[in-house]
Amino acid sequence: MAKKEFEQLEKRVEGLEKRVELLEMQIKEMKSVDPEIIDQRFKSIEDTLYSTKDILNMKEVCQYLDISQSLLYKLTCNGEIPHFKPRGKMIFFEKKELIKWIKKNAKSASGKNRKNSKSST
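The structure corresponding to this sequence follows.
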């Protein structure tokens, strides 16, 4: 019986050795990954997340519009940007409405040129 037990232990040790080798290979692969690549992937995931959400909170809108939180508060207080408060405290924004708002407030380059040319004559 001792011989069988010894053979079983040998098989277990061999299996463990293979697992250790696999783990060592995976660790080497992890060390070779450039942190900048990971940052780019996270950024890509964040961008994808915003494109799939219909309702955004304050923080997400600040990132989406690339504006400060204080400016966003100012816009909401003045009623300049479409938003809603379902419970009276938390402010939410519908992405479709934000896009409409952005387009409504957009100024074309040709429009600026027309204004400048009229004022100069």
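Helices lie at 2-31, 35-52, 58-65, 69-77, 95-104, 109-120.
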